[in-house]
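Quick one - first record:
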Amino acid sequence: MSKAKQKRAKRLGFLGKFKTKDGRKADGSGPTNTAKQPAVHQLKDSRKPEDVRKQRLQDLREKQKLSREREMMKRRNLQTFQCDILQRQREFELKETEMQSLEKHVNFENENSRKAYYREFKKVVEASDVILEVLDARDPLGCRCPQVEQAVIQSGTNKRIVLVLNKIDLVSKEIVEKWIKYLRNEFPTVAFKASTQQQTKNLKRSNVPVTKATSELLSSSACIGADCLMKLLGNYCRNQDIKTAITVGVV
């Protein structure tokens, strides 16, 4: 392109829109470089300095507000946690107070029950000539009460104690015989099986001795061992070959 045409194009404002013969744009500064160069754009803030300062100040205020909110949330969580701890502590103390009150009440009732039982037991011991201490054949020593036996012995020399080994149908004969042999070293002992008949008018009683009782008889509802017990009590009734009446207490 000649200089005259370039000047004319400048005047008309079409500089850069004309192409050279090889197809490249002509911008009046010589041939263009066909290699692509990385474009670096520098964006300049066209806002006024006052607007920039206001925006920065607003951003700072928002950051400070967020930080204050976070701090408040932390404090609230801590306060909530402390309040929860105090509430649980108050509930625990209230439950402890209630449990102590209930325990005192139960102990008071148990103490009253023990006192009432002891009064009745003392009446029975004082009024009875023979005390029958009923034991469970499955655990005789667990059923024995040495305090009861001691109280009967201390109440007078004329008091008698007889151990009644009940529920012999729930253990084998060998075990029953061993327990009788063991217990008779201390007190007279009678093997016994109470009647399991619920109808009081149909109570059965067997005259067969315990040593000769069969398994079928033991599994029946009949009472076993009553004859032996009655004979033993009859012997206590004789005083110098004179039959007298005695009082029997059962524990």
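second record:
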Amino acid sequence: YLQERDPAARQWAICIFDDLVEFAGPASAQFAGDFLEGVLAAVRQNESPDLRQAAAYGVGIMAKNGGDAYADFVVGSALPAMIEQLSKPDARETENIFATENIVSALSKIMRVYGARLGADMPALLQTWFAALPVSNDDDEVPAVYEYLVQVLTEQPDALLAGNDPRALTHLVKSVVQALAICNLSPELTQALLTVMQSTMASFDDAGKAALWSEIPREQQQALQSKGLI
């Protein structure tokens, strides 16, 4: 199926290989020669967002579960291809949003696991990832993204916020509010993001807070109120 012209058939094949890596872990690497090129081709193609989503998910699983055996492929081949997809002007269009959010989630996993290998590229990658927030459509991928966001803000906030740059702070608040308003998060992650939102808002004076809050869509404000978060 990985060689079929029908993108749905290739998607099914990649889903099987995704499962292989997820459940067999590093032991799956003995079969990697049979599917890595197919996964990379699927990330790069533009005809089928569903196929691209399955491939991006698989790359994230390689980072999370595959161990060092997949590091060269993930960092050297798949990562540049996924960054290229993020840069496309239609990346957040409805038909592409799930594929894009799987790419953002995969970047979270790659940076968490292979951060040492990224070296001098890590700051730019963090900024690319941060700019791609928010994610709120794929419930399975949202926790990985926002748990990593909390981790980075705890360990190295300047990597994202550039000395409390107002534009970065505004983007952070909007991204966190959207996740809190739309997604079903664990109580622990909800509290962590609520703390992020509150501490970030405290960086603004009253006029700045009012201006920022006016940019939050009314339905998101109402969702936060209905959940008892504000």
